[in-house]
Amino acid sequence: MMRNSLKLILLTLPLIGAGMGYLAYTVQTKAPPDQIVAAERAVAVRVIPARAGAVAPTLRGYGLVTPAETFEAIAQVSGTVAWTNPGLQRGAALPAGTPLLRIAEEDYDLALAQAEANLRAAEARLDELAVSEDNQRAALEIEREALALKAADLARARSLFEGGNLPQSGLDNARSAELVQRQKVQGIEAGLSLIPTQRRVQQEQIAVSRASAQAARLNLGRTTLTLPFEARVASVAVEEGRFLRSGEVAATLDGTAVAEVEAQVPVARLRALLRHTAPDAAAYAADPAAMTKLLEGLSLMAEVRLVLGDETLTWPARVARVSETIDPRTGSLGVIVEVEDAYSGAAPARRPPLTKGMFVEVEIAGKPVEGLVVPRAALSGTSLWLVGADDRLAAATVTPLLVQDELAVIGEGLDADARVVVSDIPFALPGMLLAPVEDDALAAFLARAR
Protein backbone atom coordinates (compact mmCIF):
# COMPACT_ATOMS: atom_id res chain seq x y z
CA MET A 1 0.00 0.00 0.00
CA MET A 2 2.72 2.45 0.92
CA ARG A 3 4.71 1.39 -2.10
CA ASN A 4 1.85 2.33 -4.47
CA SER A 5 1.40 5.78 -2.85
CA LEU A 6 5.09 6.46 -3.15
CA LYS A 7 5.07 5.60 -6.83
CA LEU A 8 2.09 7.93 -7.42
CA ILE A 9 3.83 10.84 -5.74
CA LEU A 10 7.07 10.28 -7.64
CA LEU A 11 5.25 10.29 -10.98
CA THR A 12 2.84 13.19 -10.32
CA LEU A 13 5.22 15.80 -8.94
CA PRO A 14 7.54 15.81 -12.00
CA LEU A 15 4.56 16.17 -14.36
CA ILE A 16 3.12 19.14 -12.41
CA GLY A 17 6.50 20.84 -12.35
CA ALA A 18 6.96 20.39 -16.10
CA GLY A 19 3.50 21.88 -16.82
CA MET A 20 4.10 24.90 -14.66
CA GLY A 21 7.45 25.53 -16.31
CA TYR A 22 5.91 25.35 -19.80
CA LEU A 23 3.14 27.76 -18.80
CA ALA A 24 5.61 30.27 -17.40
CA TYR A 25 7.65 30.07 -20.56
CA THR A 26 4.63 30.57 -22.79
CA VAL A 27 3.43 33.63 -20.87
CA GLN A 28 6.81 35.27 -20.94
CA THR A 29 7.51 34.67 -24.61
CA LYS A 30 4.00 35.22 -26.20
CA ALA A 31 3.22 38.63 -27.86
CA PRO A 32 0.61 40.81 -26.05
CA PRO A 33 -2.96 40.96 -27.58
CA ASP A 34 -3.90 43.86 -29.91
CA GLN A 35 -5.78 46.77 -28.13
CA ILE A 36 -9.03 48.20 -29.76
CA VAL A 37 -9.42 51.98 -29.30
CA ALA A 38 -13.13 52.92 -28.68
CA ALA A 39 -14.37 55.56 -31.25
CA GLU A 40 -17.29 58.11 -30.50
CA ARG A 41 -20.49 57.26 -32.41
CA ALA A 42 -22.61 60.10 -33.86
CA VAL A 43 -26.40 59.97 -33.36
CA ALA A 44 -28.44 60.64 -36.50
CA VAL A 45 -31.11 63.36 -35.97
CA ARG A 46 -33.49 65.32 -38.19
CA VAL A 47 -33.16 69.10 -38.04
CA ILE A 48 -34.85 72.18 -39.53
CA PRO A 49 -33.57 75.76 -39.64
CA ALA A 50 -35.39 78.28 -37.43
CA ARG A 51 -37.01 80.74 -39.83
CA ALA A 52 -38.93 83.92 -39.11
CA GLY A 53 -42.67 83.91 -39.73
CA ALA A 54 -46.05 85.06 -38.49
CA VAL A 55 -48.78 82.73 -37.22
CA ALA A 56 -52.32 83.96 -36.53
CA PRO A 57 -53.78 82.69 -33.25
CA THR A 58 -56.96 80.79 -34.05
CA LEU A 59 -59.99 79.60 -32.17
CA ARG A 60 -62.36 76.89 -33.35
CA GLY A 61 -65.92 76.17 -32.39
CA TYR A 62 -68.98 74.43 -33.77
CA GLY A 63 -72.57 75.48 -34.14
CA LEU A 64 -75.72 75.44 -36.23
CA VAL A 65 -76.53 77.84 -39.05
CA THR A 66 -79.50 80.12 -38.39
CA PRO A 67 -80.88 83.03 -40.44
CA ALA A 68 -80.00 86.48 -39.16
CA GLU A 69 -83.54 87.64 -39.99
CA THR A 70 -86.76 85.71 -39.59
CA PHE A 71 -90.17 86.99 -40.67
CA GLU A 72 -93.32 85.63 -39.08
CA ALA A 73 -96.37 86.49 -41.16
CA ILE A 74 -98.65 87.32 -38.22
CA ALA A 75 -102.23 88.34 -38.97
CA GLN A 76 -102.97 91.79 -37.54
CA VAL A 77 -106.67 91.54 -38.35
CA SER A 78 -109.09 88.65 -38.34
CA GLY A 79 -110.95 87.35 -41.34
CA THR A 80 -111.29 84.69 -43.98
CA VAL A 81 -108.27 84.16 -46.23
CA ALA A 82 -109.40 85.17 -49.71
CA TRP A 83 -106.09 84.60 -51.56
CA THR A 84 -102.67 83.07 -50.99
CA ASN A 85 -99.58 83.46 -53.14
CA PRO A 86 -99.01 80.28 -55.22
CA GLY A 87 -95.30 80.56 -54.35
CA LEU A 88 -96.00 80.42 -50.61
CA GLN A 89 -94.71 76.87 -50.30
CA ARG A 90 -92.12 75.44 -47.98
CA GLY A 91 -88.60 75.86 -49.35
CA ALA A 92 -89.54 78.43 -51.97
CA ALA A 93 -87.45 81.59 -52.28
CA LEU A 94 -89.41 84.84 -52.56
CA PRO A 95 -88.13 88.37 -53.30
CA ALA A 96 -88.72 91.37 -51.04
CA GLY A 97 -92.14 93.01 -51.44
CA THR A 98 -93.93 89.80 -52.40
CA PRO A 99 -97.60 89.70 -51.21
CA LEU A 100 -98.09 86.49 -49.27
CA LEU A 101 -101.83 86.38 -48.63
CA ARG A 102 -104.93 88.57 -48.52
CA ILE A 103 -107.78 88.50 -46.02
CA ALA A 104 -111.31 89.27 -47.24
CA GLU A 105 -111.68 93.08 -47.33
CA GLU A 106 -115.47 93.55 -47.30
CA ASP A 107 -115.88 94.02 -43.55
CA TYR A 108 -112.95 96.46 -43.43
CA ASP A 109 -114.25 98.41 -46.44
CA LEU A 110 -117.54 98.90 -44.57
CA ALA A 111 -115.75 99.88 -41.38
CA LEU A 112 -113.72 102.47 -43.30
CA ALA A 113 -116.82 103.86 -45.01
CA GLN A 114 -118.61 104.18 -41.66
CA ALA A 115 -115.59 105.87 -40.03
CA GLU A 116 -115.29 108.34 -42.89
CA ALA A 117 -119.03 109.08 -42.69
CA ASN A 118 -118.73 109.76 -38.97
CA LEU A 119 -115.83 112.10 -39.69
CA ARG A 120 -117.82 114.03 -42.27
CA ALA A 121 -120.78 114.30 -39.87
CA ALA A 122 -118.52 115.64 -37.12
CA GLU A 123 -117.01 118.19 -39.51
CA ALA A 124 -120.52 119.24 -40.61
CA ARG A 125 -121.55 119.80 -37.00
CA LEU A 126 -118.50 122.02 -36.53
CA ASP A 127 -119.54 124.04 -39.57
CA GLU A 128 -123.07 124.19 -38.19
CA LEU A 129 -121.70 125.53 -34.90
CA ALA A 130 -119.88 128.31 -36.77
CA VAL A 131 -123.07 129.32 -38.58
CA SER A 132 -125.01 129.24 -35.32
CA GLU A 133 -122.41 131.50 -33.73
CA ASP A 134 -122.74 134.04 -36.53
CA ASN A 135 -126.54 133.96 -36.24
CA GLN A 136 -126.46 134.42 -32.48
CA ARG A 137 -124.05 137.32 -32.77
CA ALA A 138 -126.37 139.01 -35.24
CA ALA A 139 -129.34 138.34 -32.96
CA LEU A 140 -127.37 139.72 -30.04
CA GLU A 141 -126.88 143.01 -31.83
CA ILE A 142 -130.62 143.27 -32.49
CA GLU A 143 -131.53 142.38 -28.95
CA ARG A 144 -129.03 144.86 -27.59
CA GLU A 145 -130.64 147.61 -29.70
CA ALA A 146 -134.02 146.52 -28.40
CA LEU A 147 -132.65 146.62 -24.86
CA ALA A 148 -131.47 150.18 -25.43
CA LEU A 149 -134.99 151.14 -26.52
CA LYS A 150 -136.50 149.42 -23.50
CA ALA A 151 -134.06 151.20 -21.24
CA ALA A 152 -135.02 154.56 -22.81
CA ASP A 153 -138.72 153.76 -22.30
CA LEU A 154 -138.01 152.91 -18.68
CA ALA A 155 -136.17 156.20 -18.20
CA ARG A 156 -139.11 158.20 -19.64
CA ALA A 157 -141.62 156.21 -17.57
CA ARG A 158 -139.62 156.93 -14.45
CA SER A 159 -139.49 160.64 -15.30
CA LEU A 160 -143.24 160.76 -15.91
CA PHE A 161 -143.91 158.81 -12.73
CA GLU A 162 -141.81 161.22 -10.71
CA GLY A 163 -143.76 164.14 -12.26
CA GLY A 164 -147.06 162.51 -11.35
CA ASN A 165 -148.02 161.97 -14.98
CA LEU A 166 -147.76 158.16 -14.95
CA PRO A 167 -149.29 155.71 -12.52
CA GLN A 168 -147.26 153.06 -10.74
CA SER A 169 -148.51 150.35 -13.04
CA GLY A 170 -147.10 152.13 -16.06
CA LEU A 171 -143.69 152.36 -14.44
CA ASP A 172 -143.89 148.66 -13.50
CA ASN A 173 -144.79 147.68 -17.04
CA ALA A 174 -141.83 149.64 -18.42
CA ARG A 175 -139.46 148.06 -15.88
CA SER A 176 -140.82 144.58 -16.65
CA ALA A 177 -140.35 145.07 -20.39
CA GLU A 178 -136.79 146.27 -19.82
CA LEU A 179 -135.98 143.22 -17.64
CA VAL A 180 -137.43 140.82 -20.18
CA GLN A 181 -135.28 142.32 -22.90
CA ARG A 182 -132.20 142.26 -20.69
CA GLN A 183 -132.84 138.57 -20.03
CA LYS A 184 -132.97 137.91 -23.77
CA VAL A 185 -129.61 139.64 -24.24
CA GLN A 186 -128.12 137.72 -21.36
CA GLY A 187 -129.41 134.42 -22.74
CA ILE A 188 -127.81 135.05 -26.12
CA GLU A 189 -124.54 136.12 -24.49
CA ALA A 190 -124.55 132.95 -22.35
CA GLY A 191 -125.07 130.88 -25.48
CA LEU A 192 -122.19 132.61 -27.23
CA SER A 193 -119.92 132.04 -24.24
CA LEU A 194 -120.51 128.27 -24.57
CA ILE A 195 -119.61 128.16 -28.25
CA PRO A 196 -115.77 128.03 -27.73
CA THR A 197 -116.22 125.03 -25.43
CA GLN A 198 -118.64 123.41 -27.87
CA ARG A 199 -116.16 124.05 -30.69
CA ARG A 200 -113.34 122.36 -28.76
CA VAL A 201 -115.59 119.39 -27.96
CA GLN A 202 -116.55 119.11 -31.61
CA GLN A 203 -112.91 119.38 -32.70
CA GLU A 204 -112.03 116.52 -30.35
CA GLN A 205 -114.90 114.54 -31.81
CA ILE A 206 -113.50 115.20 -35.26
CA ALA A 207 -110.08 114.00 -34.06
CA VAL A 208 -111.67 110.81 -32.70
CA SER A 209 -113.53 110.27 -35.96
CA ARG A 210 -110.38 110.93 -37.96
CA ALA A 211 -108.44 108.43 -35.81
CA SER A 212 -111.21 105.87 -36.30
CA ALA A 213 -111.03 106.41 -40.04
CA GLN A 214 -107.26 106.07 -39.99
CA ALA A 215 -107.51 102.86 -37.94
CA ALA A 216 -110.06 101.51 -40.37
CA ARG A 217 -107.76 102.44 -43.25
CA LEU A 218 -104.80 100.71 -41.56
CA ASN A 219 -106.88 97.61 -40.88
CA LEU A 220 -107.88 97.55 -44.52
CA GLY A 221 -104.20 97.71 -45.49
CA ARG A 222 -103.39 94.97 -43.00
CA THR A 223 -105.58 92.52 -44.86
CA THR A 224 -102.60 91.94 -47.18
CA LEU A 225 -99.40 90.46 -45.68
CA THR A 226 -96.25 91.45 -47.58
CA LEU A 227 -92.71 90.07 -47.29
CA PRO A 228 -90.31 92.85 -46.18
CA PHE A 229 -87.07 91.19 -47.37
CA GLU A 230 -85.85 88.35 -49.56
CA ALA A 231 -86.47 85.07 -47.78
CA ARG A 232 -87.18 81.36 -48.06
CA VAL A 233 -90.41 79.85 -46.81
CA ALA A 234 -89.77 77.78 -43.69
CA SER A 235 -93.35 76.84 -42.78
CA VAL A 236 -96.90 77.54 -43.93
CA ALA A 237 -99.99 77.22 -41.73
CA VAL A 238 -102.73 78.81 -43.86
CA GLU A 239 -104.82 78.14 -46.94
CA GLU A 240 -107.58 79.87 -48.87
CA GLY A 241 -110.99 79.84 -47.20
CA ARG A 242 -109.65 79.41 -43.69
CA PHE A 243 -110.54 81.91 -40.96
CA LEU A 244 -107.39 83.55 -39.69
CA ARG A 245 -107.47 85.04 -36.20
CA SER A 246 -105.63 88.22 -35.28
CA GLY A 247 -102.19 87.35 -33.85
CA GLU A 248 -102.05 83.95 -35.54
CA VAL A 249 -98.89 83.02 -37.49
CA ALA A 250 -99.76 82.26 -41.08
CA ALA A 251 -96.22 81.48 -42.29
CA THR A 252 -92.57 81.72 -41.25
CA LEU A 253 -89.83 82.81 -43.65
CA ASP A 254 -86.05 82.91 -43.18
CA GLY A 255 -84.01 85.76 -44.60
CA THR A 256 -81.36 84.79 -47.13
CA ALA A 257 -79.15 87.89 -47.05
CA VAL A 258 -77.20 87.03 -43.89
CA ALA A 259 -76.69 83.74 -42.04
CA GLU A 260 -75.50 83.44 -38.44
CA VAL A 261 -73.60 80.75 -36.57
CA GLU A 262 -73.27 80.73 -32.79
CA ALA A 263 -70.07 78.78 -32.18
CA GLN A 264 -69.48 77.58 -28.63
CA VAL A 265 -65.89 78.27 -27.63
CA PRO A 266 -64.10 77.92 -24.27
CA VAL A 267 -63.72 81.22 -22.47
CA ALA A 268 -60.09 80.43 -21.66
CA ARG A 269 -59.27 79.94 -25.37
CA LEU A 270 -61.05 83.17 -26.24
CA ARG A 271 -59.03 85.03 -23.63
CA ALA A 272 -55.82 83.55 -25.05
CA LEU A 273 -56.70 84.65 -28.58
CA LEU A 274 -57.62 88.14 -27.44
CA ARG A 275 -54.45 88.39 -25.41
CA HIS A 276 -52.46 88.26 -28.65
CA THR A 277 -54.86 90.48 -30.60
CA ALA A 278 -55.43 93.17 -27.99
CA PRO A 279 -53.71 92.76 -24.62
CA ASP A 280 -56.32 94.84 -22.80
CA ALA A 281 -59.22 92.88 -24.33
CA ALA A 282 -58.73 89.65 -22.37
CA ALA A 283 -60.05 91.27 -19.19
CA TYR A 284 -63.49 91.59 -20.80
CA ALA A 285 -63.85 87.98 -21.92
CA ALA A 286 -66.12 87.12 -18.98
CA ASP A 287 -68.47 90.06 -19.64
CA PRO A 288 -70.50 89.36 -22.82
CA ALA A 289 -71.89 92.89 -23.08
CA ALA A 290 -68.47 94.52 -22.80
CA MET A 291 -66.94 91.90 -25.06
CA THR A 292 -69.49 92.54 -27.83
CA LYS A 293 -68.66 96.24 -27.79
CA LEU A 294 -64.94 95.47 -27.78
CA LEU A 295 -65.12 93.02 -30.70
CA GLU A 296 -66.44 95.79 -32.94
CA GLY A 297 -63.04 97.47 -32.81
CA LEU A 298 -60.91 94.35 -33.40
CA SER A 299 -59.87 93.09 -36.81
CA LEU A 300 -60.81 89.47 -36.22
CA MET A 301 -61.11 87.22 -39.25
CA ALA A 302 -63.53 84.32 -39.34
CA GLU A 303 -64.31 81.43 -41.66
CA VAL A 304 -67.20 78.99 -41.71
CA ARG A 305 -66.48 75.45 -42.90
CA LEU A 306 -68.82 72.70 -43.98
CA VAL A 307 -67.40 69.20 -44.41
CA LEU A 308 -69.12 67.16 -47.15
CA GLY A 309 -67.35 63.84 -47.35
CA ASP A 310 -63.91 64.46 -48.82
CA GLU A 311 -64.74 68.07 -49.70
CA THR A 312 -64.70 71.09 -47.39
CA LEU A 313 -66.66 74.21 -48.35
CA THR A 314 -65.73 77.55 -46.82
CA TRP A 315 -67.42 80.94 -46.44
CA PRO A 316 -65.79 84.15 -45.19
CA ALA A 317 -67.52 85.48 -42.07
CA ARG A 318 -67.48 88.43 -39.69
CA VAL A 319 -67.38 88.26 -35.90
CA ALA A 320 -70.53 90.15 -34.86
CA ARG A 321 -71.06 89.67 -31.14
CA VAL A 322 -71.05 87.17 -28.29
CA SER A 323 -74.04 85.58 -26.59
CA GLU A 324 -75.42 87.02 -23.39
CA THR A 325 -74.50 84.21 -20.99
CA ILE A 326 -71.72 81.75 -20.26
CA ASP A 327 -72.64 78.08 -20.00
CA PRO A 328 -71.85 77.16 -16.36
CA ARG A 329 -71.48 73.46 -17.20
CA THR A 330 -68.94 73.72 -19.98
CA GLY A 331 -67.50 77.18 -19.34
CA SER A 332 -68.09 78.05 -22.98
CA LEU A 333 -69.31 81.25 -24.56
CA GLY A 334 -71.19 81.59 -27.80
CA VAL A 335 -69.40 83.71 -30.41
CA ILE A 336 -71.79 84.73 -33.19
CA VAL A 337 -70.40 85.19 -36.69
CA GLU A 338 -72.28 86.47 -39.72
CA VAL A 339 -71.97 85.24 -43.30
CA GLU A 340 -73.21 87.63 -45.96
CA ASP A 341 -74.61 86.43 -49.29
CA ALA A 342 -74.83 82.90 -47.97
CA TYR A 343 -76.94 81.94 -50.99
CA SER A 344 -74.87 83.65 -53.67
CA GLY A 345 -72.95 81.31 -55.91
CA ALA A 346 -74.95 78.31 -54.72
CA ALA A 347 -75.15 75.40 -57.17
CA PRO A 348 -77.07 72.31 -56.01
CA ALA A 349 -74.67 69.89 -57.67
CA ARG A 350 -71.44 71.63 -56.63
CA ARG A 351 -72.00 74.12 -53.83
CA PRO A 352 -75.14 74.03 -51.66
CA PRO A 353 -76.35 77.21 -49.96
CA LEU A 354 -75.54 77.79 -46.31
CA THR A 355 -78.99 76.94 -44.97
CA LYS A 356 -80.58 76.75 -41.54
CA GLY A 357 -79.69 73.71 -39.45
CA MET A 358 -76.31 72.92 -41.01
CA PHE A 359 -73.69 71.89 -38.45
CA VAL A 360 -70.52 73.78 -39.32
CA GLU A 361 -67.09 74.60 -37.94
CA VAL A 362 -66.12 78.20 -37.26
CA GLU A 363 -62.51 79.33 -37.14
CA ILE A 364 -61.71 82.77 -35.74
CA ALA A 365 -58.26 84.24 -36.34
CA GLY A 366 -56.65 87.14 -34.53
CA LYS A 367 -53.69 89.35 -35.27
CA PRO A 368 -50.66 87.29 -36.47
CA VAL A 369 -47.86 86.74 -33.95
CA GLU A 370 -44.37 87.26 -35.38
CA GLY A 371 -41.30 85.26 -34.34
CA LEU A 372 -39.29 82.16 -35.21
CA VAL A 373 -41.56 79.27 -36.16
CA VAL A 374 -40.63 75.74 -35.04
CA PRO A 375 -42.58 72.48 -34.72
CA ARG A 376 -44.54 72.20 -31.51
CA ALA A 377 -43.19 68.66 -30.98
CA ALA A 378 -39.64 70.03 -30.76
CA LEU A 379 -40.55 72.26 -27.82
CA SER A 380 -40.39 70.79 -24.32
CA GLY A 381 -41.82 73.40 -21.98
CA THR A 382 -39.41 76.25 -22.62
CA SER A 383 -36.51 74.17 -23.95
CA LEU A 384 -35.29 73.25 -27.42
CA TRP A 385 -32.49 70.91 -28.51
CA LEU A 386 -30.16 72.49 -31.04
CA VAL A 387 -27.25 71.31 -33.15
CA GLY A 388 -24.39 73.45 -31.87
CA ALA A 389 -20.75 73.85 -32.80
CA ASP A 390 -18.96 70.75 -34.14
CA ASP A 391 -22.39 69.09 -34.49
CA ARG A 392 -22.71 68.76 -30.73
CA LEU A 393 -26.08 68.67 -28.95
CA ALA A 394 -26.93 71.91 -27.12
CA ALA A 395 -29.96 72.97 -25.06
CA ALA A 396 -31.60 76.37 -25.42
CA THR A 397 -34.09 78.03 -23.07
CA VAL A 398 -36.62 80.00 -25.14
CA THR A 399 -39.71 82.18 -24.67
CA PRO A 400 -42.71 80.84 -26.60
CA LEU A 401 -45.07 83.57 -27.82
CA LEU A 402 -47.68 81.22 -29.28
CA VAL A 403 -48.15 77.47 -29.12
CA GLN A 404 -50.92 76.30 -31.40
CA ASP A 405 -51.75 73.05 -33.19
CA GLU A 406 -48.44 71.79 -34.66
CA LEU A 407 -46.59 75.10 -34.48
CA ALA A 408 -44.77 77.17 -31.89
CA VAL A 409 -43.67 80.77 -32.31
CA ILE A 410 -40.51 81.63 -30.35
CA GLY A 411 -39.82 85.18 -29.23
CA GLU A 412 -36.49 85.06 -27.37
CA GLY A 413 -33.69 82.57 -26.77
CA LEU A 414 -33.38 81.33 -30.36
CA ASP A 415 -31.34 82.72 -33.23
CA ALA A 416 -32.53 82.77 -36.81
CA ASP A 417 -31.30 79.82 -38.91
CA ALA A 418 -30.37 77.86 -35.79
CA ARG A 419 -30.60 74.12 -36.42
CA VAL A 420 -33.46 72.79 -34.30
CA VAL A 421 -33.58 69.07 -33.53
CA VAL A 422 -37.02 67.74 -34.46
CA SER A 423 -36.52 64.00 -33.88
CA ASP A 424 -36.58 62.16 -30.56
CA ILE A 425 -33.25 61.34 -28.91
CA PRO A 426 -33.63 58.39 -26.49
CA PHE A 427 -30.75 59.43 -24.21
CA ALA A 428 -30.07 63.11 -24.82
CA LEU A 429 -26.92 64.49 -23.23
CA PRO A 430 -25.59 67.97 -23.92
CA GLY A 431 -22.37 67.76 -25.93
CA MET A 432 -23.09 64.41 -27.55
CA LEU A 433 -22.07 64.09 -31.19
CA LEU A 434 -24.83 64.32 -33.78
CA ALA A 435 -25.25 63.47 -37.41
CA PRO A 436 -27.82 66.08 -38.51
CA VAL A 437 -30.02 65.54 -41.57
CA GLU A 438 -32.18 68.35 -42.99
CA ASP A 439 -35.92 67.52 -42.93
CA ASP A 440 -36.94 69.33 -46.11
CA ALA A 441 -40.55 68.12 -46.00
CA LEU A 442 -41.10 69.46 -42.49
CA ALA A 443 -39.39 72.74 -43.38
CA ALA A 444 -41.70 73.13 -46.36
CA PHE A 445 -44.73 72.42 -44.19
CA LEU A 446 -43.67 75.11 -41.71
CA ALA A 447 -43.17 77.57 -44.55
CA ARG A 448 -46.73 76.94 -45.80
CA ALA A 449 -48.21 77.19 -42.34
CA ARG A 450 -46.79 80.64 -41.61
UniProtKB/TrEMBL annotation:
Name of the protein described by the UniProt record: Acriflavin resistance protein
The keyword Glycosyltransferase is assigned to this record: no
Keywords: Coiled coil
UniProt superkingdom: Bacteria
Coiled-coil ranges per UniProt: 105-157
Gene3D superfamilies for the chain: 2.40.30.170, 2.40.420.20, 2.40.50.100, Helix hairpin bin
Keyword Chaperone: no
